[in-house]
Write a structure and sequence with these properties.
globular; lipoprotein; mainly beta; single chain; Calycin; 3 helices; Lipocalin_CS; Lipocalin_ApoD; Outer membrane lipoprotein blc
Length: about 180
């Protein structure tokens, strides 16, 4: 059976999209720490129109993070198909790794988002708050089903209230799992 073409948001307001997003649920990667909590992404628009990306998670009280850059796959298109580029390893910026980041849905207030990519191996439900209503969650899951995703793989990410501060606690400098989790390497 041919896969349906995925619907991607058109006319994303990149400035409104900036800021912090909490991971409500995702398709876990086998490389990702099973006990990773408080996973989140922070996006900052740069002067050249690209986006600085910081992904963070906490494992056993240690903050792991990695930084990258996001940019439109096709500058002439109004579709929210982005590329995200990370450098591996994070402390030795030599080998860039590039993956797809497609915004499949965003609500009018830019409070919840559904992110996927063309292989349908990765899916993220993001929110401006650490928790969302079950009704909204179920609507996002249904939207993923409609786009051809196997939502049985969705795993809810534990989030604490209040969330941890940015630089609290000892660091996990490895950070490599982020790359592997996003690109399935």
């Amino acid at each position: 059976m041919a896969k349906i073409e995925m619907e991607v948001v058109k006319g994303l307001d990149i400035e409104r999209y900036m800021g912090r997003w909490y991971e409500i649920a995702s398709f876990p990667s086998r490389f990702q720490p099973k006990n990773g909590v408080n996973t989140r992404a922070t996006y900052t628009l740069k002067e050249d129109g690209t986006v600085n990306v910081v992904n963070e998670t906490w494992t056993d009280g240690k903050r792991g993070y990695i930084q990258g850059t996001a940019y439109k796959a096709d500058p002439k298109s109004d579709e929210a198909k982005l590329k995200v580029k990370f450098y591996v390893p994070p402390f030795l910026p030599i080998i860039p790794v590039v993956g797809d980041y497609w915004v499949l849905y965003i609500d009018p207030d830019y409070q919840v988002a559904l992110i996927g990519q063309p292989t349908r191996k990765y899916l993220w439900i993001l929110s401006r708050k650490t928790h969302i209503d079950e009704d909204i969650y179920n609507q996002l899951v249904q939207r993923a089903v409609d786009e051809g995703y196997d939502v049985s793989k969705l795993h809810k990410t534990p989030q604490s209230d209040p969330p941890p501060e940015g630089d609290e606690g000892p660091k996990d400098t490895k950070g490599i799992w982020w790359i592997k989790s996003i690109f399935g390497k």
